[in-house]
Amino acid sequence: MRKHSRVISAFVLVVGLASCSTYQVHSNLPTGTAIAPTNASQVQVLYSPPQRPYESIGIVSAKRYKPGWTDPSVSDAIPQLQAAGAQIGANAVIVRSDRALNDRHIVVEAEAIRYTDTPAAQTP
User: Fold this and answer.
1) Average pLDDT for residues 82-111, to the nearest whole number?
2) How far apart are CA 39 and CA 60, in angstroms?
3) pTM of the model
4) Which of 120, 65, 56 is CA-nearest to residue 88?
5) Can you spell out the DSSP letters for 58-122?
6) Amino acid 20: pLDDT
7) Residue 94: beta bridge partners?
């Protein structure tokens, strides 16, 4: 019975490590300025600036580990970029750089933006 619980504990640890991902947020907004968070599933992921007016509200980065035989890609980090952007009220993130690390990780950095031509973004 004791051996069985060790196997289960080891399995849980491996699964936990296999899905390891983190993200960071650095806001450009003045101290004390707050924007309501947005829905992460609605944060657009762009690879070039949009054609509509926007303001930069911060920098977000995601570090994603991908187990297996294939190297991680930018698309593996998209959910973390969206979550990070949503946390500071972004409508979209513009992917600016990515770098693969030797230990099966990828780090992707993006500019978090908020559109200025929407009613919610305009101030009275």
Assistant:
1) 90
2) 16
3) 0.72
4) 56
5) EEEEEEEE--SSS---HHHHHHHHHHHHHHTT-SEEEEEEEEE-TTSEEEEEEEEEEESSSTTTS
6) 60
7) 46, 111
